[in-house]
Amino acid sequence: VCHHSLATIFLFEIGFPMAQVNLKLSFLEFSVGKFTYFELNRPFPVEAALHQISSNVTFLIFQIHSQYQNTTVSFTKTLLPNASETGNDGGLVFTLRPEQTVCTWYLGTEDTKPVKNVAIPLPYSEGDPIPGGCNLEFDLDIDPNIYLDYNFFETTIKFAPANLGYARDEEPPSCDVGTGQDFRWRLQYDVYQYFLPENDLTEAALLWHLQRMAQVPQVKASAVKVITLTGNEKTTVSFSSLPGQGVIYNVIVWDPALNTSAAYIPVHTYACSFESAEGNCASLGRLSTKVFSTLFALLGLFICFFGHRFWKTELFFIGFIFLGFFFYILITRLTSLKYDVRLVLTAVAGSAGGVLLVAAWWRFGTLLLCMLCVGLVLGFFIASGAFFTPLGNLKVFHDDGVFWVTFSCIALLIPVVFMGCLRILNILTCGVVGSYSVVLAVDSYMYTSLSYITLNVLRRALNTDFRRAYLSVPFQTNDFIILTVWGMLAVSGITLQIRRERGQPPFPPHPYKLWKQERERRVTNILDPSYHTPPLRERLYGRLTQIKELFRKGQPAGERTPLLL
């Protein structure tokens, strides 16, 4: 380890070839195709160089990465908008002149804290396409960077179109002269996605995994290809945001005529901020969400094992979900209330929905109406699960009309299919939906991809732009464990209720009819002690009279009239 006032270099073996860095004053030296770890401090800049560049190398891409602090890489010592790039994932393209064997550039940061980085210069030959070679949107003349923007709903990446490769002593091909196969329009862009380990926000993990997304062979071996864009399509892709989950994106441009490829500079996000007080990556779960989801999970766990036996409690649970879901969508789209206020109002509205469904059953005894609500909740869950699979990424479902019609048909199909066996439908809903509430509760304390089975549908209902997002989530060790627990709870709850209800009436009798029969029996049966009980109105009036007597002043004893003289 060497120390200097401007840069501190850290070198260690991590399974990839590392560059040997000579530190002389504020000077860094890199090696082609080798990763280097180092730390940057203010002031700016630090000069960097690459020597002994091979003659068959036509252009170089230098890239530098940090976790969340910005660094700057520049062609010149004086920063110019069209000659520098600033961010936590940035880089430059160096097009080489004939006989050129040395490249120099400048690195630095304006952050007050030291910034740990990993960087690498990658060589490409004349047959390889040039990432960002036909840039018309961003500041750099040739821009190999991927620009990322995120919000709660979606993460969007943009990049400049590439150009065909050319030799050192040639002029670059024109970008917009022709549209045939001899021009850049023949190029194709493969967009790759790579997930970091769940619940791991460490800097070391990110910098290590970024090395798997820098070079073409490693990207293809490690990441998942999400989509392929042609040269005529817009170079913008959206993904569903996963707050707290690290994701790395990269694009490989492929020339089908020469079968050559080149990689853009990878970009990463956690869909949250490491520095802001609200929505910080280290403390994503709000207290209100934890309280709400924990109470909901306790009720769901009870419903999972005892829902069919305690029929009115289950109806309250179903009514809560039914009205609460639509009410939350309504107030979120129509108002700008804070999240905690919306959550409290949703809890109140959901409770009102549960009470209304219980009251409807008690007064009217409409079993079919109640079971329709139960079946629709299960149908909603099954439809959400269907679109959680790769089926949801089909382009046809990026259209809202097609999506919601298909979704509604699947949701309505479930109560229709189980119309002849309502008790089985009810028990299945209790077991599956009740146990899933535990998954949602776990998600408020630690990340799990299974929560997005339903959250993706909620996001689509809340945000119109979410329809264009590709829905992909990691499925790692935590998710396998939670999936196993969820499955065990659901199977146990369903089995227990089926065995317990064997030989019992399918559903309880109409409560209002029972109440009327009981009241008539008491009126006509004079031997029933309740027959001699006064009506409720008289009993309440008697109680009020007794309470008034407690506060009435006592009257003096004896003569109350004045004596006559």
From TrEMBL:
Bilayer topology term: Multi-pass membrane protein
Subcellular location: Membrane
GO cellular component, one term: plasma membrane
The TM7S3/TM198-like domain, residue ranges: 294-498
Residue intervals passing through the bilayer: 291-308, 315-331, 343-362, 369-389, 401-418, 425-447, 480-498
Broad class of the protein's primary localization: membrane
Entry keyword annotation includes Nucleotide-binding: no
Protein name: Transmembrane 7 superfamily member 3
Native organism: Nannospalax galili
Organism lineage: Eukaryota, Metazoa, Chordata, Craniata, Vertebrata
